[in-house]
Amino acid sequence: MRAVVQNDKSRASRVFRASSPGLRTRGGVAVLAVAALASGCAQDAAGPQPLQAPPARALDAYASELRAAHTARVAAARRWNLKKVPLTAPPPPAKKPEIKAREGFEVDGQEDLPPVFTSVPTKEKIVFLTIDDGAEKDPAFLRMMSELRIPYTAFLSDYLVKEDYGYFRKMRDRGVTLANHTLNHPYLPGLSYAEQKREICGMQDVIEKRYGERPTLFRPPYGNYNRDTLRAARSCGIEYAPIWNEEVFADHWDYREWDRETHPGDIVLTHFRGEDDWGGTMRDMVREFLDKVTAEGYAVARLEDYL
To answer: What are the backbone angles phi and psi of residue 20, rounded to the nearest 5°?
Structure first.
């Protein structure tokens, strides 16, 4: 048995002017309008049929919502001192990419175990933000991420989360996925199979009890694991074990890859930390993260939408 050791648009759819002045519509509605025209032509043999006008009020309302959402995002970027407005991620793929263990990160019998991976196969310029443990509980961070509409996944450890379960309930209510990072954040390869199972399955139970859903994502503390880790995780209902390709702090980045570059589909790690730990706040970390990825043309997507 070997231990594997690692370091711990919807862009607005094209709008066009319809026959009614000021009417704006999405491409999807345009397709329906064209289909209606085609249907009308097909019935000409039976006599002319009246064409149905698109629902102008609904389309105007949708366009207004888009404008309002963009205005709010611009205002939020300014309010939180970002250099640019964060880019909006494209819609998730209808067909999910196949997730395999990264080469060199496999264990014996890997085909039946949750894969350990550092990025998601995609050609889209997107990255995924993941945040570990739960030590810092900054209410301003929750407001910032909600106002900017930035998705992220939280990997939680109970010995820190239990100080304030309510904080992470607010996070869940904002649509954040709460995932498993063990009860006590131990070095798992140093434990027996039974001990690892208690750590992982125990955290599954905590999250299910406190937040109503049993996670399918698990991240081993420090990125350290062995075959027993993944066997234990599978027995508790874990399907994936994502780790990371980059790590962001309040004032710098660390990289796994030799080229020190961001790549499409990369998973980015950070931690729930405050000024006492890294000389900056969670908001500082978010600014460091978003300013860099936005400048490089990347949007932040929701990891679970690709699994």
So the answer is: -80, 130
